[in-house]
Please model this.
Amino acid sequence: MTPSAMDEPVEAADTDLMQLVRQLWAGKYWVIAFTLVFGISAYLVAKSTPPTFRADALMQLEDNSAQMRYSPTLGQILELFKLLPAPADRLRLH
Model:
């Protein structure tokens, strides 16, 4: 193949692309109108259709701070490192 034969398809594709861009630009108002009409129609249909799935949740929050305690092993570990005071029933009074 000669270099000029290789250039011809590129030029033809380039010309076709420019021609397509010019045609789209010439009909830009039709493209905008078409997009707006069907975009607004799709929005209205989506808003007027009732939802198929719906979920509700109810949460009850309680104050459980008085019930929260350390596990015995964790309490013993913390006592070893003097991070937790010893419970009153385990105090030795002389």
Remarks:
- Residues 3-48 form one domain.
- The first helix runs from residue 3 to 26.
